[in-house]
User: What shape does this take?
Amino acid sequence: MNILLTGGAGFIGSNLAKQLLEEGHRVICLDNLDGYYDPDIKWRNVQQSLNELNYHFHEGDIRDAELIDMLFRLYSIDAVVHLAARAGVRPSVQDPALYYDVNVTGTLTVLQAMQRWNVKKMVFASSSSVYGDSPNVPFAETDTADRPLSPYAASKRAAELLCHTFHHLYGFDIFCLRFFTVYGPQQRPEMAISQFTDSILKGRPINVFGDGSTARDYTYVEDIVSGIIQSLDNLKGYEVLNIGGSDPISLANLIKLIEQSIGEQARINRLPMQAGDVQQTYADITKASQLIGYQPAIQIEEGVRRFVEWYRSQLDVCLATH
Assistant: This one.
């Protein structure tokens, strides 16, 4: 298939691109390489695939309708994997208009291009944050998702609803995948596991928001990639699916795991809970398992060990080149 991969230079997108290429697909990657985090990191992600014959990179914005049209015209797109978004719960509280514009208007721009070019298959990256602070655990797709705690969560839910509208009006096949805290090699530097690992390795204190009891359902990036590809292989109708590890861990225990993997103890700087943060996330993956055969393979202990090993290797490279 010819697959338009938006946000393809990012953490999940670059890992997905490699797997799609291995499976023989043609990947048209669109990314604006914005400054939310160091664009050089994204560019290095792109360079891993640039020499592949079936990989085509275009720098640009999902809100640019003319550019999106050009990509559909040039490459005869068969399906879209829409990962491009402004990420981050806490920053969205500071700039809600930007999150709405990119995550909602941007998604609408892509959907309208699909309609114009008669492309009817999309996998959309949503988020577990749409569940808000739901007391029902594990979170099931049938649970209410109309109480978001941040503009980021609200923007993802709004985009899901747009996807359903285009399914209803034009017969699009769209799966909205609610990702649960993704981690692994190449993850964004502001994410907790990255920050904790970096600080502990460099002997700096780590900032811990709250008392350490908050829990997250961490999902290794390889499992996320598997869920996306399984969705592409089974796209029919409109579905919302949880893609998670289904094994939450408290912040305190996560820090212990990182300490064990590094062999050093963390110095902790305790801070109050942040606006928009939820107490816990926990995926019920029954539906994804039944519908697409999704089953996470990498447990958190193994995933953290792999991440720390990768991160050390990156530090060694940096030291060797400076």
The chain has one domain: 2-320. Residues 96-116 form the longest helix (21 residues). The domain at 2-320 is CATH 3.40.50.720 (Rossmann fold). Residues 161 and 176 are 10 Å apart (CA to CA).
